[in-house]
Structures are given as C-alpha cells and as structure tokens.
Amino acid sequence: MSLRTHNKDHLQNYTGDYAVAPLKLDLPAPEDPLQFWIQHPTQNLLIDLTAFAEGQTVVPRTGRWGGPFSGRPQLIRQLAPAIKVATIGLSPVSAKNSMRILRTWWRLLDGVENAAGLAGQLVVRVEDVRQLTRLHCEYAHQTKMHDDSFTWFLGIANVILRAHGSPTLHWDTPKNPQPKRHLPPEDQIAVLRVALKQTWESVRKRWALSDRVRTEGFIPQSVEEEDLLKHWEYFSEKQHLYGIALPTADQLRGGLPEKRFARFSGLTLVALRATAFPTLWEADTAFHMCLANSGWNPAVLFALDGRFEELFLRDHPQDKDRYILVGTKARAGGKEQIVDGLWKTPWGPGPIVRTWLERVKPLREQLQTRLVFEKERFNQMRQDGASSDVLSRQHNAVLHLEKGCRSVWLYAGRGGRIEWLREEKCNVHHLNGKVVSYLFALIHLINVERAERGEAPISLVTASDFRDIFALYVWRQSGGNILAVMRLLNHSQLRTTQGYVDNNILNAERDQQTRTFLDHLFAELGQGRLDITILAHLQRHGAVTPEMEKRLQDFRTMERSRLGVACQDPFNPPPAIQPDTDGSRRCGAQRCLLCRQNALILPESLAGIAMRVEELMAIQKSVSVESWLTSDFPKELSNGLDALALFPVDNVHEARVHWAEKIVSGAHRVPGLRLATIQSEDL
Fold first, then answer.
1. CA–CA separation, 261 and 323 (whole Å)
2. Which of 46, 50, 479, 599 has its CA 20 to 30 A from that of 492?
C-alpha cells in the first residue's frame, strides 16, 4: 500500500471518450419559496419544506416515521433562507439528514407545548425564532437529542437571530453517550465470512455455466443446461428483435399475461434475465464481499464511478500481478482510500469490481442511451414553456438515470428495469413475506442450517459492521498493533482508530486479562515474592512448573562476561581460548564469540557483542593482512556478525556506531590491540 499523494482531480484531467455527451441542464426554478435545489455537483435534490408549514400527520410511503408534528408556517418561512444556505452543495444523503433534524425539532416544539398544557402552564406557541427559550434546550437534553442535531438547528436559529439584531442562543450542547461497537463472537464472524465467500463462489459458478451455454454450438448435457439454453435462445432473440440489452417485461412476453406466457412457453421472466445479467442477490453478494475484504465504509464503495474504471482500478505500478483500488471518502474531505491485492484472488475487491463492470456493461450502455434521450426531452420541455412542477419531475428522472450510469452495482431487476444498489435503499429482499436486508436474509439461511445441527444462531450484523470486523482482523494479524489498524483503515487520527478497537470482543478480553493479572499478582504476593518474569509468564502462558522455576534460577545465577553473554561454565573454558586451564580459575580471555559450548546470547547482549565487533574491526585495520588471516579473529568477527543478525537492524546500527565512535576518540581501549600490532610488525 502506497502513502504517496494521489491526484484527486481525475475527471478534470481525463482525456478519454465520455460514454455520454454532457448536456447542460438548467435547474427549474421552483415557484414556492419553501422549495429549492441543493445544487450538488453531481446529485441535485429538490428540498420541499412545505410539510413544516402544513404539518404531517400521515405516515409517508417511504422513509422512517418518527411521529406526527404540527405545522408552523411563519417559523419555517423565517428559517428557510438560512436552511437553504446551510444545505446548498450537500449530498442528497446529508440534505435528507438535515430534514430529519428539522422534523426532530418540530416534534420537540410540539412536545414542550403539549407538556406545558398537561401541567396547566401557559406556553407561547413558537412561530418566531425569538420565542425559543431555555426550556427548549432543557427538553432537548431530557430527550437525549444527538449533539449534531442540536448544534445544526442552533446554528440555523442563531443566523436568523443575528439578522434580526437579537441576542444569539448560548445553549449547552448535549453530550452523546459513548458509542458501543458490538460484534458477534469471532467464531460466528468466521462462519459468516465463510458463508459469504461460498455464496460468491456459487455466483461465479452460475456465471460460468451461463457463459458456456451462451457459446456458439453449445450442446447441453443435463436437464439444467437444456433449460438454460432454451431461456438464453429466447432472450437473445428478443434482444436482437428490439435492439436493446434488457427488453421490457411486455417485450419478453410478447403481449401475453405473465401466467399465460409461463404456461405456454415454459419460461419465466426472472430466469430469462438471469441468463445474461446479474440479479439483485448477486449484486448484494458482490458488494458485501468487497466490504468484507477492503475495510471500506459502504459509502466509499457506493461512490465508485462505474463509467471510468481506469480512474479507480488499475495494475500496481511495480507488480502487474497486483492491483490498486482507490475510493474517495466524502466525509473525510475527499481523502483517498486505497486497497491493493492480487488479481488472481477471485474474492478480492479488485477482481470483483472488474468482473462486475464487464458483465453489466450492456446495461450501462442502455442506461446512457436513455439518459441522453431524457436530457434532450428536458430541454425540449423547457423550450415549450412547461411548468415548474413538470420540469422538476423530468429533472428528477434525469438525476435518477445519472445515478444509475455512475453506479458500479447495476443488475437486472425483477420488474424488468435496470436497477442498481443504492446507499439509501438496502432493505429490498423478501423473506417470509417481510422486506429484509441482504445480511438478514443470508444470516437467516446460515442459522437454519446451524439449528439443524443444534448450534447457536449467529447474531445479526449490518453492512457498516464489516469495517469493524476488518479492524478486528487486522488487530489480530498485527499482534495488537494499533498503527497497523490505523494505516489499513486510512485514518488520519489515532483517536479515530481507538474507537474501532474499542469493541465488545476486545474489551471483554482486556477485562479478563485484568482479572487474571490481579489474581496472579495477589497469588505471588501471598507467597512473599513479586517476580516480574514469573508474573508475565503466568499472564501469557499459564502455570509455572518447578522445573521452569529451577531453570529460571539457574539462568539468573549464571555469570556474565564483559560482552553481556551468559557463561554456563566460566571455570572450564575451551583450551583454544584459555590453554592452561585446570578448572581452578575463571575464564580470563572472555572471547565468548568463539565459545559455542558455554556462551548463551541474551537479549541484553546486544551492546557487548556490538562492542566486540567494533573492537575486531579496529584490530583488522591495525594489523597486516597475513597476521589477520592467520589468527582466529576472522572467525570471531564472523560469529559476532551472525549474532547481531538476531537483533533489530536499527538497534544494531545504533550500538555499532556508538562503540566505533568511542574507539576512534580513545574513550574505549581495545583489549589486545597493542599486542596484535606488535606481533604484526615483527612479521
């Protein structure tokens, strides 16, 4: 993974051919002052504040329902200019979130007034921002409003107050509770990852079979292949007849009702489309497979522009067998998120994205053709003087098609339309008559099999949990290195990474480790000792046997030479090192790098070995080549360099430089250097 700076102005520098010629669309001017466009660079959205003026008591057909609220026409007209300024340029998701915050405050205002009425107190109905009081702030705290919702509305209100020359509101922001990251047990996570991988493999097998059936001259060898070939021949005929990649349901049925068509032809519309293009289930499988192996947020994966693959997916510059996948995180100010991997890994995000783009290319071309038509239609409507409402509906249709052209995750919908995965719409699968998410359906299938084996069910996870799961995986593989997690999650601040390693699994481990440590600590104190080495072993590996304690004691009683090397028998050095030894005196030479039978290199031996290596280097420079080669110094130096290879490179370099400087400056005297020099001169 590279940390180099990447050019983010990809589209400005792109010199290739655009699949769709850009047609300029002027936003239709809304006639109502409570309506305006957010004017996002790529995804415009019409914001309608009418509901806040009229109130909302009916459950909407789409979106979440937080309850009714009354209309406040004067207040919303007063706030509308500031709301428009605050939302212009935002993405549709952020703009819709702003509307959610506004609905929360409208309900809060109703709640304060209703509570006062029940208590028999008189409270003025808020129709002007100057009527907001400390009571509304306290109510927001009591209802545990999120600080983002609180500060957003407070900022809007203060803008209007300043415009009227009134004092601004200085309210205390509520403190959010510490977020809790709850993940299933790691054994369940492993089962989920395996199931997801197996599901993706089944998708690839179906595609491989479809590709074989679609080859010219294919001869079916089974009933399944015969049925698949029958569907493909019929679907291919309709493609050529109507000149489009995905014919409509009416075109496929030839005008017949669906049941009658299925009865007479023996074909189904779903199977017809699946012979050529991916399905919704397959799209969700590919998407979640990428999430599981990239560590990205879903928003980053959704933001990839499928029209320009070469801008985000390419070969690694140093290894053509690898790829680099680059995404952009809007919430991080457009910071690039980079993943690299092997092209040969079929479940890696790079190969999945490339394979998907190749399979849905005809769908994208059909969408782009439709987009050009709808853009021209919009401009014609404007020239014909169509109303603002008509133009707004047509403009939304154009925006809808533009989103589809950009999306990587196109598929053939069950209704016969070209569809794509959307960030704001994930609950689209059906299970037992209910609309559920992909992961809910997948985990349900896993749990059915686990129930048959008498195993506990897997807990439900969401798409955003895969980033936490990826962080946990990196934490394990790196041995608890938070910097590795920070790097692979592309975080700018360490405190952000700390939140990802603050989850129920790791917290439970830390709690258990703390309890275990205290148990061992008090057990050692109860024996009248506090041995850090024994305590560490108890914490990491478990019980300490009497044999281990004896070995530890023997190790500690071993004498150390001037090199910091332990000696197993200092009174019996090898004759080659100390010839006239009779076991009555200690080794005086202390040339431990030549004493393989007694020397034990310790973690603290680095400084001494580095010292001896530099001493030998100094001796080599001071004596003749013949004297050096006829001595045992070369063997000692070779052993010393081999021993230093056991230690970290940076630490070795630092230690050698330290002793080399001391020898050169005369602060350290090299034993035997003068004698070796005299002997060399005699030769």
1. 46
2. 479
